[in-house]
From TrEMBL:
Subcellular location: Golgi apparatus, Golgi stack membrane
Shown segment, full-protein numbering: 93 to 423 of 430
NAD(P)-binding domain segment(s): 32-312
Protein name: UDP-glucuronate decarboxylase
Known pathway: Nucleotide-sugar biosynthesis; UDP-alpha-D-xylose biosynthesis; UDP-alpha-D-xylose from UDP-alpha-D-glucuronate: step 1/1
Cofactor: NAD(+)
Record organism: Corchorus capsularis (Jute)
UniProt topology in membrane: Single-pass type II membrane protein
Keyword Nucleus: no
Keyword Metal-binding: no
A molecular function GO annotation: UDP-glucuronate decarboxylase activity
Length: 331
């Protein structure tokens, strides 16, 4: 049976299995479920660069082979097409569990990955979400806030699925002694983001590039806090390597209304881009902003990339994917 502590060669001197960042140590075997997706593929880049062996488990529901293709041929990289709803047998040290469509499979997949972590003694990290706070009555949101979620609304299967995933994670921790970590991720953007899954940043950027109007839902006064993907990946890795279970909010406290976001997109891509108002979706949270004091204090983490710095990095990737390499003078 594998145990995390034995594997990294610290033995009983380091019962928590904690690997101080920057310390030389044996490469780990790491599973990233959802590793062909937006966040997962950036995480995989960092883990491979660090010298670890990475197994990506993905069913390509929303992810793309293109996101990880640059690792093909590297003996330390492996890609498995697999739905995490089905059991999976592997021998690994760490599991970053990102695989999640907005549906109940999120719960079954999490159960399987926790079962895997329990069997092989791997450390398990759940990527939960700020949506567990629902339409929050506390602002900004602290990890101690229990949230305001409608159990039967149109957004519920994602919100409640992640809440259940957090519950399962803590039950496996308390009941089976699995080493777990929980991240509550706030809205994240960056290169490789799905172009047409309807998220606001990807919608606005693609619309501005295609010379279409930016679709603002509702009055556009609702707020979100947008985090650049490299900041998130740094936070996930610090959380995995650190000694705290969490949950930890990982997000950028910079708060924008959707109209302000539209302005930043206009400044970055096309000052003449038009704005078009559309009806908002049901149960849309009015505001959202992370309180990140806990992550600052216990993980020594805070975001470094502002929206105005990060957005252009995403725009050049979108330009290439939308127009191809040789058109429109993509930067
Ligand atoms: P994404 O859709 O790009 O990545 C998810 C990946 O999981 C995809 O590659 C998809 O193919 C894969 N997947 C889905 N269902 C699967 C299944 N049953 N079996 C195997 N693979 C499966 O999304 P992302 O933005 O990279 O999100 C990654 C994680 O972070 C998710 O758990 C998401 O809930 C969480 N999160 C993301 C954000 C954000 O703003 N991007 C915010 C909060 C939480
Ligand atoms: N599981 C898995 N891989 C493993 C070990 C378990 O996919 O290496 C799955 C297993 O099929 C089960 C789930 O994880 O559906 C929970 O496993 P656990 O051992 O905790 O529960 P049990 O099987 O005892 O109900
Ligand atoms: N939104 C918008 N225009 C779009 C897509 C989304 O105004 O084209 C709004 C949406 O109503 C919500 C906010 O942007 O208030 C963030 O939506 P997203 O789906 O990106 O993230 P989430 O609601 O999950 O935080």
């Amino acid at each position: 049976k594998f145990s995390y502590a034995n594997r990294v060669g610290f033995g009983s001197a380091n019962p928590t299995g904690k690997i101080p960042l920057g310390l030389k140590r044996k490469g780990l075997r790491i599973v990233v479920t959802g590793g062909a997706g937006f966040v997962g593929s950036h995480l995989v880049d960092r883990l491979i660069a660090r010298g670890d062996s990475v197994i990506v488990v993905d069913n390509f529901f929303t992810g793309r082979k293109e996101n990880v293709m640059h690792h093909f041929g590297n003996p330390k990289f492996e890609l498995i097409r697999h739905d995490v709803v089905e059991p999976l047998l592997l021998e690994v040290d760490q599991i970053y569990h990102l695989a999640c469509p907005a549906s109940p499979t999120n719960v079954v997949g999490t159960l399987n990955m926790l079962g895997l972590a329990k069997r092989v003694g791997a450390r398990f990290l759940l990527t939960s979400t700020s949506e567990v706070y629902g339409d929050p009555l506390q602002h900004p949101q602290k990890e101690t806030y229990w949230g305001n979620v409608n159990p039967i609304g149109v957004r519920s299967c994602y919100d409640e699925g992640k809440r259940t995933a957090e519950t399962l994670t803590m039950d496996y921790h308390r009941g089976a002694g699995v080493e777990v970590r929980i991240a509550r991720i706030f809205n994240t953007y960056g290169p490789r983001m799905c172009i047409d899954d309807g998220r606001v940043v990807s919608n606005f950027v693609a619309q501005a590039l295609r010379k279409e109007p930016l679709t603002v839902y509702g009055d556009g006064k609702q707020t979100r806090s947008f985090q650049y993907v490299s900041d998130l990946v740094e936070g996930l890795m610090r959380l995995m390597e650190g000694e705290h279970v969490g949950p930890f909010n990982l997000g950028n406290p910079g708060e924008f209304t959707m109209l302000e976001l539209a302005e930043v997109v206009q400044e970055t891509i096309d000052p003449n881009a038009k704005i078009e108002f559309r009806p908002n979706t049901e149960d849309d949270p009015h505001k959202r902003k992370p309180d990140i004091s806990r992550a600052k204090e216990l993980l020594g983490w805070e975001p470094k990339v502002s929206l105005r710095k990060g957005l252009p990095l995403m725009v050049s990737d979108f330009r290439q994917r939308i127009f191809g390499d040789h058109k429109e003078g993509g930067n």
